[in-house]
Amino acid sequence: AQSVAQPEDQVNVAEGNPLTVKCTYSVSGNPYLFWYVQYPNRGLQFLLKYITGDNLVKGSYGFEAEFNKSQTSFHLKKPSALVSDSALYFCAVRDISQHNTDKLIFGTGTRLQVFP
Amino acid sequence: DSGVTQTPKHLITATGQRVTLRCSPRSGDLSVYWYQQSLDQGLQFLIQYYNGEERAKGNILERFSAQQFPDLHSELNLSSLELGDSALYFCASSVANRFMDEQFFGPGTRLTVL
Predict the structure, then answer these.
(1) Which of A44, B7, B14, B110 is the most exposed place for a label (fewest CB within 10 A)?
(2) Is A62 helix (H, G, I), strand (E, B) or coil?
(3) Does the beta carbon of B102 lie under 8 angstroms from any beta carbon of chain A?
(4) Contact B5, B105 (CB under 8 A)
(5) Which residues 6+ apart lie within 8 Å of A86 measured at CB?
(6) Nearest CB to B42: which of A44, A51, A106?
(7) pLDDT at position A49
(8) Band of the pLDDT at B1, cuts 50, 70, 90?
(9) Closest Cα in chain B, distance from residue A116 (Å)
């Protein structure tokens, strides 16, 4: 079965420092991976996705993610954190185990807190 | 703004009641997905429709049902409500039923069952 794990409930980082939010995956076959962000009282916003190709994927708001097949990881990164980046981040994998569906399986989420 | 709209934003009701949540996908999107977000279960996939047809079911209770209409909007019906059904319900849409397409989420409907 497809799954993703986000090992950290919360990540704290100072503004201006680099940030990493971790995600590992378990899939049979090729992984199709996504990152979403949820701000308070808002829906999820798409940040970036990995389907195939370059292992470094660039997304919205200066975020990027590195796909590592050997470590089955898809960590979200940003070179310089902003206070406004504080939010809940979800890693997700496309579940293609059933024919004709492309539903997402989400991790438990990681709360990012950026301190001024 | 993702282009996905959901109504109502908030819903407060009593146990045993029935409610309907409505979702309008982005213009041109054929696939609609429903997810439930709760503190104890996290984000869980409920059901997917593609161009009016049910495509996949997840952890959706028998008391819950959904449909997608010819104009592609979707409704999620929750009946015989229990306290544990209190959650944030999200609708998402994507262009088609393809694995590479990202899903765009609506703002959600917060359901409170008293």
Answers:
(1) B14
(2) helix
(3) yes
(4) no
(5) A112, A113, A114
(6) A106
(7) 94
(8) confident
(9) 27
